[in-house]
Every structure is written in C-alpha cells, then in structure tokens.
Amino acid sequence: xxxxxxxxxxxxxRLFAPLLLGLMGLRPAEVAGMRWSDIDFEADTLAxxxxxxxxxxxxxxxxxxxxxxxxxxxxxxxxxKLALLGFKVLQxxxxxxxxxxxxxxxxxxxxxxxxxxxxxxLREHAYSLMAQLxxxxxxxxxxxxxxxxxxxxxxxx
Length: 157
Prior knowledge:
Strand content: 5-15%
InterPro entries: DNA_brk_join_enz, Integrase-like_cat_sf, Integrase_catalytic
Keywords: DNA recombination
Organism: Streptomyces vastus
Strand order of the largest sheet: 1-2-5
Largest sheet: 3 strands, antiparallel
Structural class: alpha+beta
Oligomer: single chain
Protein name: Tyr recombinase domain-containing protein
C-alpha cells in the first residue's frame, strides 16, 4: 500500500484518527481498547495498556495488552495529535445530538452513538477506503514501517 496516498485520501474521513493510530503500528485491538484517558495531549504521549476484541461477533473481550512489552507509552506525532483532537471535537456534537441515546463509554474509537467500535469495523472500514482509493488491500498494522520513515510522521523534536 502507498501509505502516503492512503493518509491523504482519508484525511476527511470521520475515522481518520483511529486509522492513523493503526498506521503508527497499534494493533486493531489496541486502537479499539484506547480510551481518551490514555492520551495525554499536553505531554504528547499515548499509553497503550488495554485491548478490546470481539469474539465470534458476539462476546467482547477486554484485557491488558498482549504482552508486557505491549504495554507502552508512545510519543504522539503532531499530525496524529491534531487528528485525535479533531476526532474528540467531532464527538461532542454527536453526543449532544443523540442526547440520552449517546453512550459515554470513555473509549476513543466509537460510532456516532458513542458505542465502542470493534476491530472488525476498523479493518473493514480501512479495506473499503483502500478499495475506493484504488490501493492494494493491506492490514493497517503492516503499513507501520512505511509510515515511520519520516514521510508521514516526522520525528518529534
């Protein structure tokens, strides 16, 4: 996949920020398990501590990161920080519009009703966008090396 073409092509998509996290190297279950409280916008870091997966399209499994090494604090590159801030701002009018129907789960990766989204939804959405852009279908996580080559996420200063 041409990661830069993908990032440019999806920049106006509602799920731009969660997709960028996948391109940074977070596993889909880590993106799904990310809570707003895991993101420190002042320190420009995000803590990867929990995962959230759906088993058999029915049962939700929430647990600690896959391994001890999986629990980590990562720097938050400027473009990803801006995307996350934009996503957080976008969720507020959704919450207001839905009133009592909105679920305030604390998760970052939620639908317009505040319901936490699944790893499957993230993957299927990414694949759909890749097809729309005429790009080869790859897992977001697999694109992490091309995204970390200073092209998309330049090193923090």
